[in-house]
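Now for a specimen:

…
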Amino acid sequence: MHGIVLLDKPLGLSSNAALQRVRYRFGKIKAGHAGTLDPLATGMLPIFLGEATKFIQHVLSARKAYRTTIAFGAETATADREGDIVATAALPAIDRAALDTLLAGFVGRIRQTPPMYSAIKRDGVPLYKLARQGEQVEVPEREVEIERIEVLAHSPEMLEIDVVCGSGTYIRSLGVDIGRALGSAAHLAALRRLWVSPFEDQPMVGLDLLNAADDPTRHVLPIEAAMPQFPPVVLTALEYAELAFGRRVTGHPEADGRFRLYGSAQQFLGLGLVEHGILRADRLMATA
């Protein structure tokens, strides 16, 4: 089995625990996931099965959309509802126009400090492990991109928003920063990932439905569904044989770049790179 399952990760499971359950459903095959979700977050977790794991890197920089509820009044060590309270401040009065203006300042390329409780590594050790040991380290700022923020509901106690952003954005940090900018203290009360590109219009499947399915493979997308940004190129059997033996194929008129490779029967063979009319293999399917 080689393909992609768009799992609707349930509340309370880590991304790795969810991955192992899907992997077990398909016979304990090789698997990996694209983009970690916290245990308190739900929503789309693309899980790559079998040979599809070779191509995870091509969606790790994808756009993502989240729906989150920011609770005002308390900031926590983990920036979510599970952490110890480290600061308190009620939300000052603010009207909708002023709120929209403030949120507009978070749209575009912004600087953001990831939370201490994150999977970012310091000397090979995830920060959340250091935090649990009581060790505090300086987390450097990073530049992230927020494409859009839409207000769904707001009150003196909470703010519910949809966020479309680039990879590497921490919504927990965004919630804390929005709270501080409003003169309050804040943390995330809920977080759901709505989609990861290029799967914006694809349905998710929950673990219960996946486990109950007579044929779970009907919930598996083809590998190439993750890479629509690369144009297709159809190879002859001889051309593929050349690539499989590590040789290059000349006479390709395509513009320089990465391409999805297919056989004459439209079977996906992998990815190739064209440079100055010469095609070489990038990542090939072992099953091709």
User: Anything to note?
Assistant: The chain has a mean pLDDT of 90. The helical segments are 15-25, 96-104, 127-132, 171-181, 207-212, 237-244. Residues 15-25 form the longest helix (11 residues).
